[in-house]
Amino acid sequence: MYINKMLIRNIGPIEKFEYDFKIENEKPFPIIIMGSNGSGKTILSSYIGDWIVEMAKKSFRNVVETENAYLRVVGGTNIGNYNNYGYSIIQFKDEDSEDCFVVKSGNVDFENEKKFVSKFREKEIISQRLKSSDNEKGFLRLNSSKDIFDNNVLISFASYRSEKPNWMNLEAIKYNQNYNSHPRISGRLYREVFIENTEENNEQWLEQVLVDSMSPVVPLINDSGKVSYLIAKSDRDIMTHKAIIDKINIILSLVLKRKSNLVINHRTSSIRLSINTETGMIPSLKHLSLGESILFNMFITILRHSDEILNGDILDLSRIKGIVSIDEIDMHLDSKMQYEVLPKLIELFPNIQFIITTHSPLFVLGMHERFKNNCDFINMPDGSEINVEEFGEFLSAYNYIQSTNTYQKKIKENVQKAIENIKDDSYLIITEGSTDWMHMKNAYNELMKKEEFKNKYGKLNFQFYEYQTSGDDKIDMGDDSLLDLCKNLKKIPNGKYICIFDRDKDSIISKVTNGNSYKKWSNNVYSFAIPCPKSRESNSKISIEHYYTDREIKSLVNCEDGIDRRLFIGNEFKEDRFSLDGKYLCENKGKCGPDKICIIDGEENSNVKKLSEATDENMKNYALSKMNFVKAITKKKVKISKKSYDNFIEIFKLIKEIIDNN
User: Fold this and answer.
1) Residue 180 to residues 148, 183, 188, 189: CA-CA distances in angstroms?
2) Who's near 451: CB < 8 A, 6+ residues apart?
3) Which of 153, 379, 515, 538 is 20 to 30 A (C-alpha) from 599?
């Protein structure tokens, strides 16, 4: 059974959602539905859930708490703003039969709706339903659904939240009806259809599967009622249990991102089910993270329903058909789960029509990478297809996240090495940027030539974290990375750390200072932003280079390729990126303007080109890198005044204050 067409008109924010679901070679495409908050994703998902509930009610009396109760209420609360009516139509096919499920609120302006209704095969009957003056909910001709549920997995997973939407009848659905292994009673459905939580039911089923697989005997009862036992199960029984357990462990391994298998403990144990992994034992299913638990239980529920449908046959997931609707699938899942794990789990069930809402570009990208053109990506609220060319932007975002996570790990590993090598219980000073420590260390050495400074600051017990400036261990600590490091260092006892930030972002300054002084985190972790010299008080958003005069900053440095380069300052350029003297063009417009004093250093798309070389295909970059600038200072190729070095004294005053007071 699959949905092949759906229309929603004037419901909530959805003015018109119209889509033909794709099925090729009798295999349904997964449908991924995207959109911002309030675009109608959950509303669409709820109509599919309501359709499944109403179908189950056709043959089973235990689906809702009270007879004929609706999951999704019908009435004016469903109708979108400034409209007098709203309706939805779901057209679905099961084997050779096709039917429609129609929900209508208000008095439909049918003349206005003809063009939409005419696209359905049962347009005449649908028209009659829509013309009715009463609210409407029902199928066109479906009387029994037993065969449908006997042969299909039909599930709607609600988003995991405590607040219930206005359309939901809170007294209708039996969310958590226990899984029941006792003899079946006619007219009762022993599978959930609208689901918020299946953890308890799944644990019961998992325990039964593992117990059955371990049982070496099967009971036989003769005509007189005497029980005897066969010593071994049939090969088919063994294969059936093995097939189920294999699928359970595949799902478990994908969710945990490592090879894993479920094990059952002795009946006297306080915990019945545990997990063996290649990296150790997980005591119970309760010890999974929230994201792992949600994902595991979601797909184990599909597996459990599949097992019941096959009724003892060997579990072959390619034989399972049906529809699984999942609202907000990416909730509580990390980037790897969204991008890699989820698409693999969905791929396990090739003949189930997944209809999934999401906020996650990473999940969409992962689905596109795995399914290529065999997956539909739909934008809400109109049902338009998302252009595949947009996935390049998603990939860039994913690569950035991955590289950021890797880089943060690299930073922590390098800092840890520095901590291990620290001498004499010193404070370790960690600066923002790969060159800041070089400026401070050089200034400290120059200032130590003054007797007054040496007497006051010469015995300070600190050392700089000296970044690697080249090779595989090169580090360039940005403000976010250093802030993250502060938060992690405060968790580590027995160290002493001072983190020094630039003063160019108000959002960072407020987090790392205490007024004009330093901030004390905990466990001997301190931070501050570089003090602003008097010469820069007119514009205090500075980096370490602003401790020098503008003339010193603009000093020419002859580089290895023979080109004279220098640092530029933003106010040397007009807002249109052309320099005031008409000689240069800066690539980075955001750094240019009369009120900008930011350093333009030829990195991060901030190259500076000569206009006289505009016709040259290989225009040269005349902006000096910050690294070459500080190296030129330490090698005395750029002359720095004593007054500029005195600006650094304010930094060492704060360092001394931290060391003396703590």
Assistant:
1) 20, 8, 11, 10
2) none
3) 515
pTM above 0.70, yes or no: no
Supply the Cα-derived Rg of the chain in whole angstroms.
34
What is the residue-wise DSSP string for 115-152?
Answer: HHHTTSTTHHHHHHHHH-SS-EEEESS----HHHHHHE
Interatomic CA distance for residues 68 and 57, integer angstroms: 8
CA distance 648 to 443: 7
Query: Residue 188 CA to chain centroid, in angstroms?
Result: 39
Which residue has tokens 């924010």? 13
Q: Is the dihedral of CA 129, 105, 384, 371 positive or negative?
A: negative
Scan for tokens 């545990």, then name that residue: 274
| pLDDT of 90 | 95
160 close to 332: Cβ distance less than 8 angstroms: yes
Instruction: Give the integer Cα–Cα distance in Å for 52 and 49.
Output: 5
Q: Specify the CATH superfamily of domain 1-197+322-386.
A: P-loop containing nucleotide triphosphate hydrolases (3.40.50.300)
Predicted local distance difference test score (pLDDT) of residue 175 = 44
Stretches where the chain sits below pLDDT 70 are 160-184, 215-239, 312, 387-424, 468-476, 492-494, 604-605, 616-617
Amino acid 162: pLDDT: 47
Identify whether the C-beta of residue 350 lies closer than 8 Å to the C-beta of residue 319. Answer: no
User: What's the CA gap between 45 and 380, in Å, rounded?
Assistant: 12
Alpha helices in 221-360 (DSSP H): 235-256, 290-310, 335-336, 342-347
H or E segment at 89? strand 85-94
Alpha carbon of residue 483 to chain centroid = 22
Tokens of 335: 């980037």
pLDDT digits (tens, 9 = 90+) for 362-408: 888 889 888 888 999 988 888 888 765 555 555 555 555 555 555 56
Closest CA to 253 of 333, 326, 345, 163: 345
Q: For residue 385, which amino acid is it?
A: E
CA–CA distance from 244 to each of 265, 300, 343, 346 (Å)?
19, 10, 21, 17
Query: Tokens 């600051």 appear where?
Result: 457
* pLDDT value, residue 174: 55
CA distance 131 to 498: 74
Which residues lie below 8 Å from residue 425, measured CB to CB, with a gap of 6+?
A: 461, 496
Rounded Cα gap, residues 627 and 633, in angstroms: 10
CA distance 317 to 642: 77
pLDDT digits (tens, 9 = 90+) for 530-544: 999 999 988 889 999
Cis peptide before 13, with omega less than 30 degrees from 0?
no
Surface-to-core class of residue 443, CB atoms within 10 Å of its CB (0-12 exposed, 13-18 middle, 19+ buried): buried
What is the reported pLDDT for 476? 66
Domain with CATH 3.40.50.300 in the chain: 1-197+322-386
C-alpha separations of 635 from 118, 265, 557, 603 in Å = 82, 69, 11, 22
Q: What is residue 267's predicted lDDT score, i.e. its pLDDT?
A: 77
